[in-house]
Amino acid sequence: MANGTLEAIPTEVVVQITDIENWVRKAPTLTAQHYKMGCDYLKTLALMRREIQQHYARIKKPINAARKKILDLEKEDLARVVPAEARLRELVVAFEEDRKAHTEDTAKLYLIAAEQGTPLPDLPAPPEPISGQHRTTRRQAVVTDLSLLIKAVADGTVGPEVLRPNVPALNRMVRQRGDLFSVPGVRVDTTTTVVVR
Predict the structure, then answer these.
(1) Does residue 28 surpass a pLDDT of 90?
(2) What are phi and psi of 2, to 5 degrees?
């Protein structure tokens, strides 16, 4: 960056890319006489790609370093909050459980007094709830037996959206087994690319 502005890629790189783009637009298919030129342009574009990546790597390096430092500081500061937050949550839940138990005990005592015809006991009132605060309960599924879950999908008890394919593992199997790869419900797509050096 010069004078606080973002530096563009060098003009000669832009010109070369533009020339190649124009040539490609005019040649939708390669003829035998243009094949070598097409391969040469691929090599040139590979060099341009590296030059562009290096150009922006120089620009991104200090930004990424600053971003990492900021994220590390944020993580460190948030980590300081966690223990106190967790302990206070435990204390609040324990208090609320005690309040609930107190309310239930009070109701039982009033019921007993009413049944026995004795005067109602003089019990302290439960503490007032805190305004703006409430409890939430979150239910979360935990897979305890993957085979049974797969069987439930197979028999239609649950939909297939509960299973997520491990595509990297399947790709490793494709590379290892090659043409012998065969897994029900999975097809192999082939993409051919030209590699230049």
Answers:
(1) no
(2) -115, 130
